[in-house]
Amino acid sequence: MKQFWRTFMLWSALNAGITAVPLVALPLLATGGPDLVLMRLMAAIAGLGVGLGVALVVLPTALLTTKRFAHHSKNWIFIPYAAMIPYMVAIMAATGMFFMPPLVLQLVVAVTLHLLIAQRLRKAPRLS
Q1: CB 3.0–4.6 Å: which of 27, 59, 80, 96 could bond 38 by disulfide?
Q2: How many CB atoms are located within 10 Å of the residue 11 CB?
Q3: What are the pLDDT digits (tens) for 27-60?
Q4: Pick from 119, 50, 128: nearest CA to 87
Q5: Residue 74: which residues within 8 A CB-CB, separation 6 or more?
Q6: What region, left, alpha or beta, does residue 127 occupy, with left being phi > 0 and alpha being psi -120 to 50 degrees?
């Protein structure tokens, strides 16, 4: 259980860093200065994207890749991509036409989680 919480917290921080930072910085780059209305909108979208990403992508991925399921761990490498399906539906319903930036950034998170799982599997001892 300790490994799950450590993995979950690290991957949640990774999700927040990859998803929220570019979305909050995007209005500054697009307008050349702080536009308060646009920054509030992007901060709300970033918060929603991070919350949905943690709940729908990071949580199932961290849960299924812990030691409890280690004997089937090579089968769980696809979980970040499968978790993107409910994330896509939820983010489209929640943000309307602004769904694309958080969706692309969450796909980057899914690929990163895939690589982290593959690295963990490479380090794990193999049972024949």
Answers
A1: 27
A2: 23
A3: 787 777 777 888 888 889 999 999 999 999 999 9
A4: 50
A5: 121
A6: beta
Residue ranges of the chain with per-residue pLDDT less than 50: none
Check: CB of residue 118 under 8 Å from CB of residue 77.
Answer: yes
**Residues counted in the chain:** 128
pLDDT of residue 53: 95
- 42 closest CA partner among 87, 92, 98: 98
CA distance 124 to 3: 14
Tokens for 62, please give them. 């961290």
Q: What is the pLDDT, as a whole number, of residue 124?
A: 59
Rounded distance between C-alpha atoms, residue 45 and residue 19, angstroms: 10
Q: Nearest-CA neighbor of 64 among 73, 54, 56? A: 73
